[in-house]
Amino acid sequence: MLYNSEDLLNMIHLTKSDILHLAKLSGLTLTEKEVKELSYDLSSVITFFEELKETNTKNILPTSQTTGLENITRADKIDTNQTLSLEDVMYNANDNKNNLFKVPIILKK
Amino acid sequence: MNKYIPVIGLEVHIELSTVSKMFCSCSALHFAKEPNTQVCPTCLGLPGAMPYPNKIAIKDVLKFGLATNSKVNKFSKFDRKHYMYPDLPKSYQISQYDLPFCINGKISLKSGKTINLRRIHLEEDTAKLQHYEDETGQYSLIDFNRSGVALCEMVTEPDFENVDDVIEFLKEIQLIVRYLGISQADMEKGSMRLEANLSLRPEKDSILPDYKIELKNINSFRFLEKALNYEIQRQADLLNKGVKVAQETRGFDQLKNTTFSQRIKEEAQDYRYFPEPDIPPFRFEDKFIFVIKSEIGEMPQEKRVRFANDYKIPQNYIEVLLSDKKRSEYFDKLAELDKKYSIGLNTIANLMVNKNLDQEYPEPELFIKKLLEITKKDYSTTDENTNAVYEVLHEFPKAVSDYNSGKGAVIGFLVGMVQKKLGGKGNPKVITDMLILNLKSPK
């Protein structure tokens, strides 16, 4: 992606350490080149969202819901029809052992 | 050497004993089940699967909150807590952030000290990881049967200043949970899990320390006690040497009775909480809260007071009987039956606590029957009773006529006179019955 000089001036700049922090949170390993590209790309995304600041939200309550629903619960019952077969459970697994998902070591002692 | 006061706060996780999971209809009974046989798209964290909250789990948490004098947040919601770890494949845990179901609870200790509960919230348990090493290298294995099981988390304020209070508090919490019937709270099976954070402040300084050590993955009260005592000593030694205590998470080594660092570099937590968009919020009416409160029943502390006041049995007996709700209820039944037999509640409690006699007799009636048989020898014989009653009725005609003209209280006097003749060996119940029978029979 190419930016013109005016864009760059008004842009919020995510630093290299911001990008590395985000990469760590996302479990991604990035090359030097990717870090550079992402810092431009993500900065422009965030700059774009800056436009929202122009909206007047003085009398608007924050919300995380749009349906207006409340207190939606289910009875405490087992429905075995929802339970997957072992074959289905393991269908996309890279590796398994004794019907357990096998992944690279997590915690080194 | 400076003197230090421990500053301790606790986090307690309680796995609720609902039959189904928190956000899906899979079975929640995961202990010792074949791996990955109780899972669905929701608890596997597959894209597009929708969470559907379990009503009983929510009620259980409100019950727990009300039983610990907490305030129920009348408006509450779930939030997403993000972190990358294979025990949680959707990369976030559905938990609660700024509006937990319950806040500001209080538990009183025997010393009179109050421990403040910051919050009690509901979340989903994670999958179970096991770590291995063999000829193929190091790897981890994951079982999702536990993933999505309803998990309640209670967080205290850092109000504890000694280890004994911590253990007393935790035992009381375990008892409350068991009385409520919302969890087995079994630490060996992982349905109750403990975390403590601990730091030391100088005795003369009330400012909170600028570090804290988290103790994690401790699966018994005894190990927690040892870990805390070890940590208090370790931190005091460091502080006395002028060394700054590094903020970190530590585990407990059960063989060496020491704590060890689990992570050297602690990065600032960045969970990026935001409201769970797939679950509408909750609004609890006063009536709903009232109904839940009325379902709570007698809590251990209330029972403790009642047993002491009504039964007047020793404190150590009370604690043993209380520690098992069913046993305490069994004792209640015995106490009721004993109103007739007057065996004595101390004797009964003693036979339960020291001889486990209740284990042999599932029915309280049979327990009492057995006790009467044991103690019968000491009572006077039927012939002796008959003679004594006959004599008393003839020696005190005034009392007899008083009784027959409606002064029922005089029976106590007559029982006393019979006992006097028997040298106090009469069974009060038997004598009373015999007197009443003879008083009422036509002359």
UniProtKB/TrEMBL annotation, chain B:
Residues 329-439 form the Asn/Gln amidotransferase domain. Pfam families: GatB_N (PF02934), GatB_Yqey (PF02637). PROSITE patterns: GATB (PS01234). It catalyses: L-glutamyl-tRNA(Gln) + L-glutamine + ATP + H2O = L-glutaminyl-tRNA(Gln) + L-glutamate + ADP + phosphate + H(+); L-aspartyl-tRNA(Asn) + L-glutamine + ATP + H2O = L-asparaginyl-tRNA(Asn) + L-glutamate + ADP + phosphate + 2 H(+). It comes from Candidatus Woesebacteria bacterium GW2011_GWA1_37_8. Allows the formation of correctly charged Asn-tRNA(Asn) or Gln-tRNA(Gln) through the transamidation of misacylated Asp-tRNA(Asn) or Glu-tRNA(Gln) in organisms which lack either or both of asparaginyl-tRNA or glutaminyl-tRNA synthetases. The reaction takes place in the presence of glutamine and ATP through an activated phospho-Asp-tRNA(Asn) or phospho-Glu-tRNA(Gln). SMART domains: GatB_Yqey (SM00845). GO terms for molecular function: asparaginyl-tRNA synthase (glutamine-hydrolyzing) activity; ATP binding; glutaminyl-tRNA synthase (glutamine-hydrolyzing) activity; transferase activity. Belongs to the GatB/GatE family. GatB subfamily. Keywords: ATP-binding, Ligase, Nucleotide-binding, Protein biosynthesis, Transferase. InterPro entries: Asn/Gln-tRNA_amidoTrfase_suB/E, Asn/Gln-tRNA_Trfase_suB/E_cat, Asn/Gln_amidotransferase, Asn/Gln_tRNA_amidoTrase-B-like, GatB, GatB_Yqey_C_2, Gln-tRNA_amidoTrfase_suB_CS, Gln_synth/guanido_kin_cat_dom. HAMAP family: GatB. This is Aspartyl/glutamyl-tRNA(Asn/Gln) amidotransferase subunit B. Signal peptide: none annotated. One of its GO terms (biological process) is translation. It is an enzyme of class 6 (ligase). The lineage of its organism: Bacteria, Candidatus Woeseibacteriota. Heterotrimer of A, B and C subunits.
